[in-house]
Amino acid sequence: MAYPTVNGPYGLIPINLIGGQVFAGATRQIPIASAYNTGIFFGDVVKLSSDGVLVKDTGTSTATPVGVFLGCSYTDPTFGKVFRQYYPASTTASDIMAYVCDDPDQLFKVAIVSSGTTIGTVQRTVVGNNAALVQNSGSTVTGNSGVAIDDTVATTATLPIRIVDLVPETSYVSGGNVVYQEAIVKWNAPSPTITIDFTAETASVSTAGGHQYLNPVGV
Q1: What residues are paired with 48 via a beta bridge?
Q2: How far apart are alpha carbons 75 and 93 in whole angstroms?
C-alpha cells in the first residue's frame, strides 16, 4: 500500500500544546502596518517589531518568533471588510489585523526538507534535537506558507525549533528503516550568554533567539 505523500512544505500548523493540552484555536489579534511590503502567509513565522506591529520573521538558524500567522482582516476600499488566508504585500489599509497563534507552549506540525521545497526524511534519532527553519515563498493561490524545517539537526542552543515527535501517518520504510517526512515541533526558549569581566568584577547576561514572550528583556 502506498504511503501518504507530502507534496511540499506548508508552514507550521498548530495541533496541540505541550503535555497533551488541547489547542482550542485561540489566537491573538496583532496589527500589521499599512503598506507593509512583505507578504505573510498562513503558517508563516512572525514576530513583533519594536513599534508593536507584526512583521514576518525570516530567520532560519536564528529567529525571534512571537508565533505563527493564521490569516488577517482589513477594510478593502471596494469590497469592504475582508478576511484573507494571507496578507498581500503592500496592502494599504488602516485596520489590518493579523490572527496569530502566539502561545509559547504551542506544538506545530511541519514538513521536513533536504533543501528548499524538496521533502526530506529523518529517523527517530532526531527527536529531542534542534533544527533550523527553511524559508520558502508562500502561495498566492492557496494562501499557504512554504516554511519547513531542515533535515539536518543539531544540539545548537540558538536554533529556533525543538523536535518533540514525528508524524507516523506519513512515514515509510526505506532501507530497512522507518523514515519520517513530518515532525511535531515547539519553539525554543531564548539562549542566554553570560559574560564575566574578571578585571572589573562584573557580569552581564544577554539572550539570543527564542520566543519573544520568553525573552526577559522584551522585544
Answers
A1: 54
A2: 6
Residue 67 parent element (H or E): strand 67-76
Distances (CA, A) of 12 to 45, 91, 206: 8, 24, 28
DSSP state letter for 37: S
Question: Between these two residues, 23 and 196, which has the higher pLDDT value?
Answer: 23
Q: State which amino acid sits at residue 154.
A: A
Residue 1, pLDDT above cutoff 60 = no
Beta bridge partners of 137: none
Task: Report the predicted TM-score, pTM, of the whole model to 2 decimal places.
Answer: 0.92
- Listed by start position, the domains of the chain span 1-189
DSSP code for 114 = E
Task: Please name the residue that has the C-alpha cell 517589531.
Answer: 49
Q: Which residues pair with 128 in a beta bridge?
A: none
Task: Say if residue 199's pLDDT is above 90.
Answer: no
What letter does residue 160 receive in the DSSP assignment? S
162, 186 Cβ separation under 8 angstroms = yes
Inter-CA distances, 170 with 77, 101, 121, Å: 44, 25, 10
175: left (phi > 0), else alpha (psi -120 to 50), else beta? left
- Note whether 200 and 211 are within 8 A (CB): no
Tell me, what DSSP letter sits at residue 211? -
> How confident is the model over 115-149, as pLDDT tens digits?
999 999 999 999 999 999 999 999 999 999 999 99
What is the rounded CA–CA span in Å between residue 142 and residue 34? Answer: 23
Gap between the Cα atoms of 142 and 84, Å rounded: 10
